[in-house]
Amino acid sequence: MKIIRSPAAMTAWSERLRREGVTIGFVPTMGALHEGHRSLIREARLQCDALVVSIFVNPTQFGPREDLTKYPRPLSHDRAICRQEGVDVCFEPTAEAMYPEGFQTTVTVPAVARRWEGEVRPHHFAGVATVVTKLFGMVRPHRALFGQKDFQQSVLVQQLVKDLNLGVDIVVRPTVREQDGLAMSSRNVYLSPDERGRAVVLYKGLQTGAKMIRTGETDARIIRSAMAQVIKGEPAMAIDYLAVCDLTTLESLPTITGKAVLLGAARIGSVRLIDNIVVSAKQARRNF
Ligand code: PAF
Description:
Blueprint: E1 2-4, H1 7-19, E2 24-29, H2 35-47, E3 50-55, H3 75-84, E4 89-91, H4 95-98, H5 117-120, H6 124-139, E5 143-147, H7 151-163, E6 169-173, H8 193-199, H9 201-214, H10 220-232, E7 237-245, E8 259-268, E9 271-280
Parallel strand pairs: 1-4, 2-3, 2-5, 3-4, 5-6
Antiparallel strand pairs: 7-8, 8-9
Helix pairs in contact: 6-7, 9-10
Pantoate (PAF) is lined by residues 28-30, 58, 61, 128, 131-132, 150, 153.
């Protein structure tokens, strides 16, 4: 496995392969790789000829009071996972190379990124959209894979690629969960053993909502309140938002008649968790 740190060297490597007709797959990450990343890397390995994983803790997507300095950076563990999974290039640009002096241009995010996470973390998605655009420019992949765990991010990236004609095929893969259902996340390492035991209640709340929709409940107000009741059963958990939304616009749906995504964010101690479930409404029985 090659380790490339310079953006110019990264682009030169990709351009050479593209000229030879090689399909390049890309998994952008901030490192601290877990089984969720591993499943993206494995899928990319199957779908593409050559595979690049980037490891870059992007400062512009962290708010001033967020965890940029303490964000986990287990580089040798990350490289070992990449080697095990047959990654061809681990791209590890420095912050100076990504944002050199004089850097000025940022991506303005679409409506889909201004609600939910966008309201709680106002600068987050502009940072994500800008760094993803830059990484695509440097890596020049044919295809990039993202996890459904960050549902709003995946919708944003699809909109970004479409609006800016970035020419990258975006693949979104299902969330990988711990045995009890907690969504895998690099930030789970911040949970104390006690918080870790309680954290799964966010997913349990979302599951309650999903079950209600599958069994015929269509009123989003009733579903939201049932999800909140489950989560509030765990007093250590503070809800940021619970939403029943359209899959592409992420606008709140008052009534669920087709597909919907249940989005949730909550805090336990100093750790913020997000999760989601995509669900289809029970189809009305047709009489013939
Ligand atoms: O999902 C992440 O890890 C990050 O938001 C990403 C896409 C690598 C951009 O920094």
